Amino acid sequence: MNNYTFFANLAGDANVPAEGILSRTLYQDDQVKVVLFGFSAGQELSEHTASMAAILHFVAGEATVTLGGDTHEVGPNAWMRMQPNLTHSVRAKTPVVMLLYLLK
User: Fold this and answer.
1) Residue 2, domain member (yes or no)
2) In angstroms, what is the C-alpha Rg of the chain?
3) Has residue 1 got a pLDDT over 80?
4) β-pair partners for 66
5) 3-13 pLDDT tens trace
6) Separation CA 68–CA 89 (nearest Å)
7) Whole-angstrom Cα distance, residue 98 to residue 77?
8) pTM for this predicted structure
9) What residue numbers bound the domain in which 88 lies?
10) How many domains does the chain divide into?
11) Which of these, 65, 14, 17, lies nearest to 41 by C-alpha position?
């Protein structure tokens, strides 16, 4: 077993679909779950909450992100941490690759 996990090209590994949202768990242990998302343009994760703290890291593309009552226009390298139970949503303006870190 390796002592590390390595991905050379997250944007390439996302396989953004022509229509829809694709998600794939990249890593999971007792402290964190990391999920890679690929959104086609116009796709949305509607307003919801998570029961644990989470980090959103945008790898590629442009999106509108709502965190509580605040709306942000984001692009590659945008990063945000959310407290548990914060209402949030993501809408892809272009094809988007995003990492979600769920902090257990």
Assistant:
1) no
2) 13
3) no
4) 71, 89
5) 999 999 999 88
6) 9
7) 9
8) 0.93
9) 10-103
10) 1
11) 17
